[in-house]
Each structure stands twice: as C-alpha cells, then as structure tokens.
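[agent] plan:
  1. take the single chain provided in the ticket
  2. run structure prediction with default settings
  3. attach structure tokens to the ticket
  4. add a short note for the reviewer (M.T.)
[agent] executing step 1
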Amino acid sequence: MAHGPDLRGRLTGSILGGLLLLLAALPGAATAQDLGQVQSPILTIDSDRFFSESDFGRRTEREFESEGAALAAENRALEADLADEEKALTRKRDTMPAEEFRALADAFDEKVQRIRREQQAKLQDLQQRAEARRRRFLDSADPILSEVMRAAGAAVIVERRSVFASAPVIDVTEVAIQRMNERVGDGGDLLAPEPAEVPAPAPRAEPGMILPPEAGDRSGGPDAPVNLPEPETEPAPARPGDDAADR
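[agent] step 2 finished; step 3 output follows
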C-alpha cells in the first residue's frame, strides 16, 4: 500500500522526535551543575520567541509597528482625498465638453497610479528595513548561540517548530534570550548611526612655505604662473691663485 507524503512526513518527524528524546535521556544529556545548562548533542530553539521576547526584538517591533501605523493612516487620508476628488470630477462630466473631461479624467487616473506606486514603495521599504533589522539580530546572536552550543557539547541547534517531539530540557530559547539581553540589550549600540567623517583640515602655510594650488583652482587664470621655490645655488669652486689674492 503506498503512503502519501503527509504520512511520510509524520513518520520522519516522529523518528527525529524519538531520536531527540533518546539523546536527552542519555547520561551525557543530564543537566551539568557546573555549567548551569543541559548537556546534549542536539538542542532546540524557538526562533520567533527568541526574537520577539528579547529586548532587541521588542524595540524593533515597537518601532516598526509605529511606522506601519503611520503609513496606514497616511494611506487612509490619501484614499479619502482621492475619493472626494473623484466625486468632484464626476459632477463636472455634464458641464464640460467630452474631450476636456477626458483629459481631466486621464490626469486623475495618472495621479492615482502615481500615489499608489509611491505608497507601495514606502511599504516595501518598511518591510525591507524590518527584515534587515532581523538579520542584524541574528548576526549578533550567532556568537551567543555558538557559546551555548559549546557549553552544551552540542553539534546543532534545531528549530523547535520543525521537531515532532522533543524533551523540554534541550530547549535553549530562554538561555539565549537572557544572554542576548545581557550582551546586546535593545541594540542601541548596534543601531546607532555611524558618525560622519570629518574632513582633514587644510595645511596652513608656514613662513617661507609655498603651497601647491588646490585641484581645479585656477583663480589666477589658465596662464597664471605657479610659484616654485628657487633652486639653491652652490658656491663656485675655488680657482688657483684665489688664496694668493686674498692674502
């Protein structure tokens, strides 16, 4: 009898879950008192909870929920304005020539499409920045999760939702949240804008020092002479008889 893919998936998940339970029951999977956490070759984590319950994730969700609400309010206001404009345009239909009305209607349609594109671009930008913030979170979490794995003697951390069954003792979500909050906090240092580069001050001319003209500075005209230091003259070599003349 052939089994469908759903049954095979359940069997695979059941086998993996049984393996996790077996590993958790091994002597090496008992909680290590000196390390304060489980010892197991396989760990699980709830990545959504890891993000949403961390200080970094809470700050991110607050900020982007606020931006999303502002964008939604802006969309509603634009829709109301366009609806009023459409009604006013419809009332003009019987009071002007058809060609003139068609030109106004076409201009209104173009305006609607332009506003729709602009608002869609704002939404996409919001979504892309939210995804980039989450990637920043995961990049910052990588060394912390590596520490947790080393301390547990684990070779892999599995997404908890993809496991059919597992022992709660091998879930490290809470440990990961605590360490993330201790090390990264709400991400203020990571998300702070980088300071703008301050241009180096121009060199000041010292007495007797000639500075080269700035690139592109031809204030003296294309034929203006460039001041160069005069070459030092070496003393002429002594000639025979000069000493006698001096005497």
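[agent] step 4 note for reviewer: The first strand starts at residue 31 and ends at 32.
[agent] ticket updated
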